[in-house]
Amino acid sequence: MSRLGYVLSAAWQGFWRNPVMSVASTLTVAVMLLLGAFFVMTDRGLQAAVGILESKVELIVYLEDDAKPTDVLELRGRIEADPAVDAVVYVSKDEALQRLKEIAARRPELAIETVSTNPLPNTLEVKLRSAQETRRLSGLLREEVGRGVVYDLVDNPTVVDKLLTITSVLSIGGLVVLGMMLFVALFVIVNTIRIAVHARRDEIEIMKLVGATDWFVRWPFIVEGMLVGAFGAFVALAAIGAAAGPVSNALIGFLDILPVSLGPNFMVQLAAGVLAFALLVGAGGATLSVRTHLAK
Amino acid sequence: MIDGEDVALLRRSQVPHLRRKIGIVFQDFKLLPTKTVAENVAFALVVTGHSGSVVREETDRALSLVGLTHRRGHFPRELSGGEQQRTAIARALVNKPRILIADEPTGNLDPVTTWEIIKLLVRVQELGTTLMVATHNAEIVNALRQRVLHLDHGAIVRDEKEGLYAA
Fold it and tell me: What's the pTM value of the predicted model, to 2 decimals?
């Protein structure tokens, strides 16, 4: 039997020598990974939703009727120069009235009385790149109110604000829960491997006596830890795979305003990430566990 | 000093390589009960990173040296005490050590088997391995008439070239 063969078969035997403990740690890892994957997916979904809403965020700047065109152009130039701004569109009084009439034509409950003067102001519609900047920019523009150019300002970033709050709360909460789960998973793996080390203490003693290196003694346990991680990852991914269809159907029914699609590419990345993380946690827990034993 | 190296100055990572130059045999054999005779002997080669063909050849050689080729497929519990100790000696020799240390190798054996093991150890010595036996058995020491180091509380109190056992 070769060296690699020895490491693999010792790891496999080690895993099944104490099946209850191995299955318990596998399931703990699986639950941790499921939670992690759930947070990543939710975060992705919410970020996509924020992105879509952000593209719709606008500030409307009402202009004074008697503002000088040069002042308006100067203001428009200043707004456009801001890095958070995507585009600024000038909508004249007449265009605004025209739009209103078009809307009224489609909605019979709105009747436009013939008015002698056009009550609508000239406006600048400011499209933003990032919703996070809304507050800052509206603050700046509000200072312009009453200086002869800007008459009033309309911003409505509350939906985006709420979504951003949810996203950040979820991210922080997710990280905290994930951290606790990671601790539990490591604890269970460390103890599983400790039992495996104990079961093979005679073998380890002889290995060291005949001159096996510390790494040679360690490898079967590290591979066993990685087996726990890999099995946990498969359980978690199978659960995600089984739940993906019904859950996304339910979500589409629930959130049909938001065309949020995570896509196959994302799922491949998620699966690879989950597996890599699981292997890392398994190997890390096992290394922690044998380190104390080998130091003796 | 072993083989020109001061063992007190060895780094931890070098200790396994030193151990490969030393074969050790114990009073209680220390065989793995779930492995056969051949697997127990081969284990010392596998865990020190030898390839499959070397493992097979050297295991066969060591088993024939101790006269256990016909028992290679048996488990330790199916062997007599003498056979178990011969398996342990084969395992200690399979890495071709420079020194063989035997710690009370006959402590668990009856008188007849004791002499079998001693004869085997003397044969190993004749083949060129330095042999060091720790024993309380006066008969063995007196019959062999080899260099005797007398230890008392960890200190050497006597060193004779062809010594006898002294109580």
Answer: 0.68
